[in-house]
Amino acid sequence: MRERIPHEIVASVLAGTTAFIGGNALHLPTWAIFISWAGMFLLGAKPTLRNATRLWAAMPIGSAFGLVIVLLDQRFGTVLGEGQAARNTVLALLILVVNCALMYTGRTRLFGLVPGMFLGFASFFATCFGGFGFDPGNAWAAWASVVVMNALGPVFAYLSRRLTFARPTPTEATTDTPAAEQPVAARV
């Protein structure tokens, strides 16, 4: 494909627009867009609705597992005592159990994109403990904020390719060679 506008320019302009999404009174985690945007390209060179749907299903679930860990830690974090070692032990056990549940959830067809769940999982912790969201320090607000921002990433990935206004090159239009067998430069 021959891009009329270089992908680097389009992606950079789109990246700049995120300042208007996160740089407001809601203090949304703009970087969460970039996490899922990158996730789209990890799934393939061309963003597809199928891959977006897979991320949209997996990332909020990963964030929800992170939310469960935080809520359980808030409730039971001092059950073994107030000391740091006791709190760390409880947290380690919570992570062990909840992470195991996350991994088993990845065996289901709907939530089979385990790396996507971990992108959501990590995005939630960064949002929650980074003080982002419309109510910093509130785990539920962090979850809602990160889910919305992660959901925008696949949209930005699609736009970053679509707005290059790419056209097939003459050799691409006449070849019957499957994309996987074409040179890398022809696939990008």
TrEMBL record:
Give TM regions. Answer: 20-43, 55-72, 111-134, 140-159
State the UniProt keywords alphabetically: Membrane, Transmembrane, Transmembrane helix
Low complexity biased stretches = 169-181
Region annotated Disordered sits at 169-188
One Pfam family assigned to this protein is: DUF1097
Name this polypeptide is given: DUF1097 domain-containing protein
Q: Which organism was this protein described from?
A: Curtobacterium citreum
